[in-house]
Amino acid sequence: MPKLIDGRAIAQKVYAELQDEIASLKLRGLTPGLAVVLVGDDPASRAYVRAKDKMCRELGLHSVKLELPATTTQEELLARVNELNRDEKIHGILVQSPPPPQIDESAIIRGLDPRKDVDGFHPLNVAKLALDDDTGFVPCTPLGCLRLLRETGITLSGANVVVLGRSMIVGKPMALLLMRKGIDTTVTVVHSRTKNIPEICRRADVIIAAIGRPHFVRTEFVREGATVIDVGINRIEDAGSERGYKLVGDVEFEGASKVAGAITPVPGGVGPMTIAMLMSNTIKACRQISEL
Ligand code: GUN
Questions:
Q1: What angle do CA 31, 274, 149 make, to 5 degrees?
Q2: What is the pLDDT of residue 224?
Q3: What is the mean pLDDT of residues 42-54?
Q4: What is the pLDDT of residues 166-209, one digit of tens each?
Q5: Identified catalytic residue from 53, 96, 116, 250
Q6: CA pair distance 280, 262, nearest whole angstrom
Q7: CB under 8 Å to 158, separation ≥6 — which residues?
Q8: How far is CA 47 from the centre of its chain?
Q9: Which of 10, 195, 213, 287 lies at a C-alpha separation of 20 to 30 Å from 25?
Q10: 113 lines ligand 1 (CB under 6 A)
Q11: Residue 173, preceding bond cis, omega within 30 degrees?
Q12: Alpha-carbon distance 208 to 231, whole Å?
């Protein structure tokens, strides 16, 4: 059996580190504050937003949860973002994605104060990631994946990593992060138009699956002993469960775990780390805005 990479336990370790930082900020009279904005009532987004708000409160951070109706206009949302940009108690702002169709998401992201963009989606933060500028914000999911990899103890320098998916939230920033000086992996990004995906994956020391397709990565994608990080959270029908669906990753866990050296479960792998990294980014925003 492979080593199971326990995202919940590693997230707890991150929180223990953050608690010391929060305590030292509080001694200086500072409480990091996060605003999470949800437009509409998508049940999955609502659950994520609730989890983020709850974790802020548990850590003693200032938390504002803004729930706006699905009919909110672009102008209304921009106005709310501007209020949060000006709010001195708020150091981090996250607008939950995806918004309803009348919202131009990229215009909203560009409307964020980049110093408060704890998602790392603003063009200035994307540029800082590409430029190896540590004052920028790196998106939470890639940051969480990197921490999971570090905790497994595998050697990253020179490792071959295959990232499946090229989204702005995971795939693209993940690739930029992994090729940074000091991390030094060799990255291949595959996507829906890539030929021979299983063959490319079989050359990987590390596979990061963020392609949004349930059970896409199977046994034959994984080299003996490779590390597999599953970012996917897909709802599939499950008549046997009370909710009528179950959550599965982009990796077919049963098969992949027969050959992998280490693997993340879904749930309990990447998910808890994403929230931990959001808390970490919020504390960083507080420190930077306060010039500490
Ligand atoms: N929706 C799914 N993941 C994310 C995320 O990391 N940030 C935001 N804002 N929305 C998301």
A1: 120
A2: 98
A3: 95
A4: 999 999 999 999 999 999 999 999 999 999 999 999 999 999 99
A5: 96
A6: 25
A7: 184, 185, 186
A8: 15
A9: 10
A10: no
A11: no
A12: 7
- Do 140-271 and 29-118 have the same topology in CATH? yes
Helices (H), 179-233: 197-202
Fold of the domain built from segment(s) 29-118 = Rossmann fold (3.40.50)
The domains of the chain are located at 29-118, 140-271
Check if the beta carbon of residue 163 is closer than 8 Å to that of residue 208: yes
Residue 261: pLDDT over 90: yes
Contact 37, 96 (CB under 8 A): yes
For the entire predicted model, the pTM comes to 0.97
Q: Where are the alpha helices (DSSP H) in 117-196?
A: 123-130, 140-152, 171-178
Q: Are the C-beta atoms of residues 249 and 209 closer than 8 Å to each other?
A: yes
CA torsion sign, 23 to 151 to 155 to 186? negative
Name the closest-CA residue to atom 1, ligand 1: 97
DSSP class of residue 15 equals H
Backbone angles phi, psi at 113, to 5 degrees: -65, 115
Q: In one letter, which amino acid is 64?
A: V
pLDDT band at 1 (very low <50, low <70, confident <90, very high): confident
Q: Which residue type is seen at 124?
A: L
- Residues with Cβ within 8 Å of residue 115, at least 6 apart in sequence: 285, 288, 289
Alpha helices by DSSP H, the chain: 7-27, 43-59, 74-86, 105-111, 123-130, 140-152, 171-178, 197-202, 253-259, 270-289
In CATH, the architecture of 140-271 is 3-Layer(aba) Sandwich (3.40)
The predicted model gives 247-270 an average pLDDT of 97
CB 169 near ligand 1, within 6 Å: yes
